[in-house]
Each structure stands twice: as structure tokens, then as C-alpha cells.
Amino acid sequence: MKKLILVCAIVLLSNSVMAKSKKKSVFVKEAKKQEIFDSFVYPAKVEPIVNAMVLSESQGIVEKISTPLGAKVKSKQSLVKVRHTDPVFKYRPVTLKAPVTGVVSKVFVSEGSLVSKGQKILQVTDPNKVKIKIEVAAKDLKFIKTGLVGSFTARGLQKSVKLKVLGVSPFVDPATGTATAELEIENKKNSLTPGILGKVIFKSNIHNGFVFMENAIYYQGKKTYVRLTEKEGEIYKIKKVEVNLGAKRRGQVEIVSGLKDGMMVIERASGFLPDGAEVTIGNLPKKKEDKAKL
Amino acid sequence: MKGLYSSPFRVYLCLFALAITGIWAGTQLPISLYPNSSKPTIWASVSYGSMSSEEFLQKYGTRIEGAIEGISTGSLEVEDLVSNYGTSSVNYNVDFGWGADPKEALREVQNLLNAQSGSWPREARDSLRVNFWSKSSGFIAISFFSEERSLDELYDLLEPLLVPKLAKVGDAEGASLWNPNRKEVRIELNPEAMAQLGLFPRNIEEVLKSGMAGYFGGSVVVGTGKLTIQMPRELEDIKTLENLLIPTQSGTIVHLSDIARIDLGPSSGHNRIFKTNGADSLILFANPRTGGNVKRMAEEILAIIEEVKPQLPSDVQFRNLVDPSEFIRQSVSNVIKEVFLAAGLAVLVLFLFIGSFKNTITAAIEIPLSMVLAFIMMKITGMNLNLISLGGLALSAGMNVDASVVVMENIFRHFEKVKGPLNYNQRLQVIIRAVKEVMGPVVASTIASLVVFAPLAFTSDLTNAILGDLAKAVVFSHGFSAFVALILVPTIRLHLMKGEKGVTPPKSPINGSLLKLESGYATALRAFIKSKLVKWIVVATVSGAFLGLLFVVMPKLKKEIIGTPDTDWMILSINTSGNTNIRQMETTTSVEEARLLEKFGSDINYTFVQIRGANNATVMARLKNKGDMNKVWKSMEGEFQNTPTQYYWVGPWNPAELPLPDPPHMRLLVRGGSTEDRRLMAKDILDDLQEKQIFSRQWSEPGVSRGENIEVNARKELWPLLYQQGARFSPYDVSDLARVATEGKSLGDININGDTFPVRLNFPEGTVSSMEDLMALPIRVGDKILPFKALNDVSLVQSKPRIYRENGRDIVVIMAKEKKGEEHKKDESLAAAKKLIADYDKKDTSYLGLTTKPQAYFEDADKELNGALKQLTLAVLMSILLIFLTLLLQFGSFIHTMIVLVAVPLGIMGVLGSLFAFSSTLSLNSALGIILLNGIAVANSILLVDFIKKLVAEGMVPIEAAILAGKKRLRPILITSLTTILGMLPIALGSGEGGKILQPLGIAVSGGLWISTLLTLFLVPMFEVQYLDWKRKKDFKLAKPNYHSDEIQKTPQIKQDDVLESSL
Question: Strand pairing of B183-189 and B755-762?
């Protein structure tokens, strides 16, 4: 008989343990104001600042191109010899000189070709001095203004590079609905090659506020709530509070009002949480407990 | 008859031939778990492309639904139509009634939709898909492995051997050999390079598609010969793919490798991953098609493997991971064992009552013989051997000996009267006389006990589909038993008696006890009838108990359609959210599988894992011991508790192929109002239900949570100018870009060195991980690189609620269910839910901001089961009516009939009482038990009443007649009852896999019959005596008012007869 009672007691005990373990578990995040911003992302093209075209000064035959594609040239260095074909000029050769220091980035003609006056012969680009060009959508023009600071990233680039808006064209292209903006960027270690594409990211509307995962929000009709855990002795209980939502950014929702610093907001739960239910917290930060003790 | 009995060998030969045919027919009967009936569901889907769900519904949807609901040809009848209109496509689920032919149903829906699709927009027409909707959870999985070969080598070896043969398995749907190392050609485009060149994914796709195709260039006749011109495909291997030339917007041409990384690697687009014991292996996997026989499918596939086996090298091994045929074979063989046990027990009862071994055999031969003969009929009517039809055979095993016993006893009775030795012809005469005497009653009682099944034929399709086989099996085998009893038993008797002198009936081995029992019963019966008070107290108690059982206990009994068999497979299903790649789920699943093996490794034989998507997987664990199922189930439920990131479900796996309805415990419909208002209100109610935690689980159809979509609208006003500026792309290219950049796109298959690989076009992973990224996708126009958002308005919008319709009604259904093992709470919970809704209706719901007024009301969730049970009740009543009419014809007296029918409530009482006592269920099976029991109980009652009447007619005083009749009829009644009770006992104990299915029937019959037999033995004679006494008094008063009752007993018997006769 005693054994029987013992068995019953064990069964009851284990049942109550089971019942306890049936408490739902939740993941919480402490409400803490953090920097929030709207981000504007644009595809961006790296363009050279110095990009000089060498044109033929007269009609003639290209006699010699002394600097091939990719050759580094100094300002005033002679690049191409063009011989006049007009007997008036006694077939005098004319030497075309580099207008700027840089690299020969394009060769439009070959030796022996006949060129006319003003025809493109070479292009000299300074790869060290670059700028960024983006096409700003018309509706974003009010945010993207001269002086706005952002960052540039591209595939193959180790780190993002800071940049600043130099100026925005006041004209919106009716075909593309965009206005061109030029951005200033420092080309450290010549890591930015003119011509590559990347992304420019601007932060705007920077302010402090609460953000939580969208899962944290509980909708009831037109009203919105979050659930908090409140500590009562050693147990945690659920409390529902009404909040007002701000914008949604990358799966996160800003909570404009209804929350106070330090509130523990439930972001994920193992099931539906009725008001006042006891829960266990799956991701309780150690630090917080210490704070609570103090 | 004379000729028949006197030539035993002719009879033996005929029956032997029939028996051989029967055995042959038996071996030919297909084996399955449940009867051969199907309830197909056909599924159809249509994408509406540019239309919205409302537009499509209005313009085409209602017409489609109307046409589907109108399908009614031959056996086809649409029972339910559920349509679900989502953001871009609609699904129709068409439920047909029981017994509909699945192929015909599919054809009908296909034809109908094809005819309708003529008027649809082209994109909708092209997207039409119609197929079976399989509800079966049965499948077969076999793993292949080798220590010497890689999986790819093994696959290359097995694929040509197995796959062509697998295609021939008619019952399977999509049988395939799965290779975990399946490779694909991945073309990962460089978004920047593409933009710089002004290329769109579609440009690449076009070049690839033309490179993948070979062309036919006509033919030239040269002289007398004909030469065809062939242009082989350009793409042969990865190298040629890399060197594929892509023309750009500016007119230059680049190699594909300049703008994309191309590799042949493990497939990322797996839609399923299989594993066993944590390891990848080749898996042969097949589902049965709707209406397909899962056992036959498994057996055919196993046969293919056996066939291929000799061609396999010795290092290749395989293992049956999941084999439903084995499970079904075991379940069925278990019930076959129970049938044998039932037969054995019936024979034992016979021996105890009859004595003589020879006579027992003579009577018992009937059991196997009538069963074997029943096989012939089963074969002819296209039945199969399943748990249900075998249950019928087990049930009839006990009933079948009755006819033989009656015939044999009558033969003995006639020989008892004869004195001195008889010659052959005299013996034959006696036997013929004896048989002729009982022929009528035997045939009549057999027909009577079969006639009770007749009303079953008129019950609902569900009842018929499940119980039809049982009823048929009983009818066939019991019907044949009368035939055998009247032909074989007398023949054997005559044959055995050769040379014997007269016959004295052999003594039963328990004759002494039986005699004591008889005299004890006689004394008890006399005391009972004579008692003034006790009998009425008993009658009152019994009636009270009957009413109590009927109105208090019956509503409390658990209801089910039919039980499901035990298995040794447990399922752990894991659900997560937020994964984008199936490989992420693979990692999660391995962790959970390891945890399962760590905690329950000692109970688990091996595991089989199916990863079905990025957020869903099931781990199946085969237990070492089936008996541990409930223990493991419970502790697994304790171990795998939902976490904030993972949701679990634990339960047994059951490959039952019968689509038994599994309705929720609550169905609450929200109808009326606008779609959005219905959603809001349903969500609010669902939250309230969850808040109060009334049921353990609740959900809704369609889902009511708030969803969001990214909406992209092309800025149409820009396009004319864009074209002027030389843009060479269309809004379609832009949407295609978004698709490739996010999900990637499959471009069909490419042949490389004899192997076929799928081709996938995508952007590097992580290119688009937010709406902002999508808006920043680069697109080149002229010299400018534009962001995606310049050409399109991109916004986050709340998604339109799904439009869910059941049989043409716009509704949201809120459903709820109790946890396994807590089903008994459902009525209480339902009442609580009803109260909640009543309160909700009064509540101020202005916070929802509804503009229309949807209404919530409850619907009977168990419609199908309740309907079936209602119809079964009707069938029971009808069978009682049939018995009543038969009796009325036989007795010609209303009162006598009513007295005989006293047995019916006693039988029902017995069934309900024992179902309650053994906490069994009120199912189709136990309802059938009631019908069956009525037959047997009434037969017992008839024996008594008929004999009492006869004795009284011969001049006995009613009470003496009743006691004599009871004493004389005790043995036959006990034989009939005990053979049936003991025959059903193994089934009532519910041992083995299949046992659980028939258990309620076993409990109903074996538990109910002894209660009803016991009560019948006392109450029926008592009522009969009461009536006869009353009647006699009345008659005497009418005829000779001065007669005293005391004098009646002294009057000569002849006078009594006269009186009785004159009264008739």
C-alpha cells in the first residue's frame, strides 16, 4: 500500500513537472532606443574626373602612335604624330601632346589611317581621380541634396568608401524620371577603377527610436499591440500593450509610441500567448538578470 | 434428397471440388487494409495572370464552380467543392462521393475545365492544371548503398535498370530514384556586368534556349538517296556554355563567362531531401496515386527490385526503409489468426456440448467449408481480403455451427425414438424425415439473421463503403452454412452410421455440470416467475437501466467512424519559419534527429527523414517494439515542446489507404460582409478562442493573419520616351529581372556527356535581401545606370485576403480540435466556444472598424459521422421492423411478437453497457454489432416462445411449459450464444495491428450477447407466462364465468387444448 502511494505521488509529481514544462517559451528583446534611418540605395557608376580627348588638329595620316593603350603619360608628353596630307602644309608632321597626366584609356585610330580635323585619336584618363554618378529617382530628390554623406560599396571592394553629394542636376530626364547627381569620393590606393558599378547607400531621416521584428506586432482590427513579459517574483507573465507603429524597414517595425525604455518585448513565441499567461524566456540575457538583482 | 444422402461420395466429391475452387478463389483475393472503396478528390488550379481574384471570380469563377457542382454522371456526384482564390491563382478541390471511380472523376473535371477554358484569357488557359489530390499517407522508401561506389556511380548503375520499370507501376504516382548528389548547371549572373552591357536575364535565356536545342533543316534528295540536314545542338558541355556568345545592347558580343560564373555543382533547387539514420543514400521513393492500392504498389516495386537484383554487382545492397505492404500483410494475417482462433473456440464449445469427437467434427466442418465457399462469392463480387471482410468471417464462424447443430440434434432425436436395429434404407428414411422437419426452420432462421443486414444497403455511402464488406462476408458465409448443414451433415451422419445399430446421442464431457445448470436454471426461473415482487423489481430495474444507457450513457460514448491500426512508426514533424534554403532546414533537422536518437535511441530501430522544404521536415522513427508506441509517443511529446523558433508535431504514422474523414471538433463559419471584414472578424474570434484556451488547437481556413506583398507597378508614362532613347527592353524583362534576382529561374534541362542536368539562372545569393535592394537593381538605359525604382513604383502593400468558398458560399471557417487523448473534452469545449460566440455577438467590436456585418455561426463538424450513425440507427430500427414483421407472420399474434422482441432492448442494453464498461467507441462497427446482436437475441427468444407455445398447446400449464421449455432450450441457446461470444473474444481483446479496428465490434457482440442472453432466459419466459395466464383467465371468464382458477389445473388437458383452439 505504501508503495502504491509512493508510485501515485511520483506520478503526480512527474505530471506536475510535465505541466510546468508546458509553459510557452518566448524570445524577448529589451526596448532600447537606437539609431533608425531610412536608407536610399542607388546603383552607382565610377567615372573619371579627368578624361581628356586628343583630337586631330588637321587632316592627315597617322604616322606614329608612340603611346599604346594603357601607357602612362605625362602632361605635354607627345603621343601621336600626324602627317599633313595637304601639299600646302608640305606634308609637315604634327605632334599631338598629352593634355593631362594620366593613362591612355582609348585608342580610336591605327597607324596609317587617314584622319580629318577634329577626329578623336586618343583618350587620356586619370584613373586616380574619380567621381561617382548616380541617377536619382524624382521622388527621392527632396532627400538627396548637395552635401549629403553616404557610402559606396562594390563587388570586390573590401570596405565601403565614404562619399558626399557634390551636386544634383536640377533637370529630371522625362524618359527615365531621374536627375543625375555627382558625388565626390576619395580614391585611396586606386581601388576604384573608373567604369565599375557599385551601390551608393544614403542614410536619411536619422533619429532614435524603438525597432522590433515584425513578428512582435499583434494586430487586432485597426489596433496594434505588442506583448511584454513582466516579472512577478520568479515568474514571467504576459502583458499586452497598445502601440503605434511607424515605418517598416528591412523586416523591422518602428514603434512610435506606447513603449518605455527597458520593457521586455516578445519577438517570437512558441504559441499563442493569452494575456496574463506564464512563460519562460528562452533568450534571457545574463546581464539583465544582474541588473534586476541590483 | 434420398439420392443425395445415399451417395456420400458424390456429395463429398462435389463439396471437395467446391472447396478447392473456394481455396483457389481465396488465394486470388487481393489483400488490403480496408475495403476496396475510394472517395476521390480532384484538384485543379488556374493562375489568373493580370486579373485580380475578385475579377476572376466574378467573370469566370462562379461559372466554373457552378459547372463543377453540376457534375452528375453515373456513379459520379460532387459532394463538396472548396475554392480558394489567392492573389494570383485559384485552387479548386472537388470531393466526390464514396465509390466514385477516381480516373473517371479526373477525366470529368478535366473535360469540364477544358471546355470552359475556351473563354478564359490565354495565360489562365495555359496555366490550367488538373490532378488527383492524394490524401493517402502511405509510401514506400528503399535505400540503396554500396561500400565500393560513390552515390553518383551507384545512381548511374541503377537508374537505367530501375526507372523505366518503375514507370510501369500503375498504382504509383511519381515513383523515382532520388540521388542526393543530383547536380545542376548553375549560371550565376553578375548583376553589374549585366547592367553595364544593358543585358537582361531574358537575353541570356533566349541564347541559352536556342543553344540547347538541335534543329532539323529539311532534307535533300541526292540521286536516289535522301539526306536529312541536321543541325546538332551547340551546347555540349560546360566549356561550350562558357563560350556561348551573347550579343549586347551596344552591338558588341561577349562570352557568357564574362558576365556569369558557370558551374556544375550540387543542386540548390532540391525540393526534397531524404536521409536515413543521418546519412544520405540513394532512395527509391513512391507514393500511391489516388485510389491506388498502396500494398500492390509496394509489392510491385519490391518485385522489380527482386527482378533487377541478379543484374546488380555484389557490392550493391538495399534496405526496405518503409514498406506499407509488410505492415498491411501483418495486420491482415493477425486478423486471419483471430478468425482461426474464433473457429477453434467455436469448435471447443461444440465439443463441450455435443461430446463425441466425430459429431463435433461433423458439425465443425461447416466453419471452414462455408468460409471457403464464401471466398468464391467474394471473388465473383470483386471483394478483397481486408480487416473488415475478415471481421465478417470471424463473426460468422460462431454463428455458422448453429444450423449443423440443429440438424444433427434433430437427427439424434429421431433416432432416440426408434427402437432396435435399422437397415440402411430405414436409417435413410429416418434421416430424411428428421432433416425435412427442420429444413424450414433452419432456412427461415438463416434468412432471418441475414435479413437484418438488408437495411444496411440503404444507408449512406460511407457506411456502405466500410461495412458493406463485413455484411457481405457474413451473408455469404452464413448463407452457405445452411446449405452445408442440410446437405453435408445428414450425409456424413448416414455414412458414419453404417453397421451401427440404433443410436444413442453421445454424452457431453461436461454433461453433469450441464444437467446441474439446467436444473439450477429451472429452479431459478420458477422462483423468478412465481415471485410477486422480485420480477417486477427486475423489470423496473432493467427498463431503468435501458433508458439510462440509451439517454445518459450513449451520448457520452466516444464516436468514431472506424478505428485505425497500430504501427511501429512514429513521426516527428518539424516546422520553422524564415529559412530560404532547404539546406538550412537540413541542418536544423540533423540536430533534431540527433536529439531524438540520443533520447530515444534505445527504443528506435532506425530513422527515415524527409525534408520537404526550407521550413518543413519529418523525421520518421521505426520503433524496436510496437508495444512501446504509447510510451514513446508520450515522452516524445514531452521532449519536443514548441520553441519560439521551432514547432513540433508528434504522432504515429499510419499508411491506411482509406480516406476516412478526420473532421475537426468545431466548425465555426464566418459569412456575409466583405472579404476583408470577414477576415478581421474571424481573426478576432480566433484570437479570443486562443486567449481563453478553450481547445488545444485552433486554426482557420483560409489563414487570417495579416500578410504583406511588395507591389511593383511599371511607370507606364516613361516607356514611350525610353523607347525613343533606344531602350530595347519591355516591362516583362524588368519583372523577369526581379524574378531571377530573387528566386532564380529554371531553364529546362541540358545534356552533357549523356547525362541530363537542370539549368538554373540566378543572381549571387544575397543580391536582393530587402525591398531596398530590389529597388536598387541596376538597369542601363543609354549611358545611364538607373535604379529599378526609377522605372517602377515599388511599395509594401497589405495583401488581399484570400477568397475561400465552400460550395459557392464565401466564408472563413474557424476550426478547432482537441489534442490526441483529450478528445473527450470536445463537447464541453464546444459548449464553451458557443458561449464565447454568444458573448462575442453582444460585444462592442467597433475597434475592428468593420464596414459590413459578417455573422458567425456553428456548423456540425461531425456531419459525416453523425449522418452515418443516424442512418445506422435507422438501419437498426428497420431491421427491428423486419424482425417484427417476420415474427408477426410466424406467430400471427401481436403480443407474442412483442414478447419475443423484448430481446431487442436487452441486446441494445448489453452492447451499450459493455461499450461503456470497456470505454470502447460508438463506431460503425459497434452499431453493426447491435444489428447482429438483435438477430441472435431474437433467435434465442423465438426458440423459447415457440416452444412454450407448443407445450401449452399440448396442454401444459404455462408456468410448467415455460420451465420445461427453458430447460430443453437452454443447451441450444447456450451453444449459439457461447460460440459467438467466444468467437468474438479474441477480436474484443484487440490484439495485434489490425485488432483495434474490429475491437468495438468484438466488444459489442461478445459483451452484449451474454448480458442479453442471461436476461432473455429469465424475462422472456416470465412475460410469456404472464401473458398466457392473463389470457387464459380472460378466456375462461368469457367462456365459463363461474370457473375458479383452482379448478383449471385439475381439468383434463384436452379441455385446455379445446379452449386454446377455440380462442384462436
Answer: parallel
Number of domains into which chain A is organized: 3
Q: Is the pLDDT of residue B1050 over 50?
A: no
C-alpha grid cell, residue A272: 499563442
The nearest alpha carbon in chain B to A137 belongs to B790
Kindly state whether residue A6 falls inside one of the protein's structural domains. Answer: no
**Is A3 part of any domain?**
no
Q: Say how many C-beta atoms besides its own lie within 10 A of residue B456's C-beta.
A: 25
Which of B196, B644, B718 is facing A177, going by the closest CB pair? B718
Task: Sort out which chain A residues have CB atoms less than 8 A from B777's CB and list them.
Answer: 43
CB of B786 within 8 A of CB of B198?
Answer: no
Q: Which of B442, B338, B353, B435 is nearest to B392 (CA)?
A: B338
What is the least distance, in Å, from the CA of B774 to any CA of chain A? 9
Task: Judge: A41–B775 Cβ closer than 8 Å, yes or no.
Answer: yes
Question: In degrees rounded to 5, what are phi and psi of residue A203?
Answer: -100, 140
Residue type, B21: T
Mutation to test the B interface, candidates A14, A20, A41, A267, most B Cβ within 10 Å? A41
Is the pTM higher than 0.80? The answer reads: no
pLDDT tens by residue, B398-457: 778 878 887 887 888 787 777 667 777 888 888 888 888 778 777 877 777 777 777 776
Q: How far apart are CA B441 and CA B449, in angstroms?
A: 12
A261 in the same domain as A193: no
List the single residue in A135, A220, A271 with the smallest CB-CB distance to B847: A220
Tell which of A178, A239, A273, A280 to mutate to test the B interface (max B CBs under 10 Å): A178
Residues A76 and A216 in one domain: no
Domain-terminating residue out of A179, A206, A233: A206
- In terms of pLDDT, which residue wins out, B823 or B372? B372
* Beta carbons of A269 and B644 less than 8 Å apart: yes
Q: What are the angstrom distances between the C-alpha of B998 and each of B102, B329, B569, B623?
A: 28, 16, 21, 24
Could you tell me if residue B374 is left (phi over 0), alpha (psi between -120 and 50 degrees) or otherwise beta?
alpha
Q: Are residues A28 and A153 in the same domain?
A: no
DSSP category for residue B36:
S
* ipTM score of complex: 0.81
Residue B1057 clears pLDDT 70, i.e. is over it: no
Nearest residue in B to A26, CA atom: B644
Q: By the 8 A CB rule, do B988 and B1003 touch?
A: yes
The answer to whether B791 and B715 are in contact (CB under 8 A) is yes
**What number is the average pLDDT over the span B205-213?**
84
Cis preceding-peptide flag for B121 (omega within 30 of 0)? no
pLDDT in tens, B853-911: 888 888 887 777 777 778 878 887 888 888 788 778 877 788 888 888 888 888 888 88
CATH number of residue A145's parent domain: 2.40.30.170
Domain-ending residue, one of A183, A206, A229: A206
Containing structural domain, residue A154: 39-48+134-206
Which tens digits make up the pLDDT trace of B62-75?
Answer: 889 998 888 887 77
* Cβ neighbours of B191 (radius 10 Å): 23
Strands B41-47 and B89-96: antiparallel
| Residue whose C-alpha is closest to residue B985's, from B977, B993, B332 | B977
Instruction: Pick the residue of B691, B793, B844 with the most A CBs within 10 A to test the interface with A by mutation.
Output: B691
Residue B169 has pLDDT above 60, yes or no: yes
The reply to whether A4 falls in a domain is no
pLDDT band at residue A15 under the 50/70/90 scheme: very low
Q: Indicate the pLDDT class of residue B1054, thresholds 50, 70 and 90.
A: very low
Q: What confidence tier does B1046 reach under pLDDT thresholds 50, 70, 90?
A: very low
CB B763 within 8 A of CB B740: yes
pLDDT value of position B993: 55
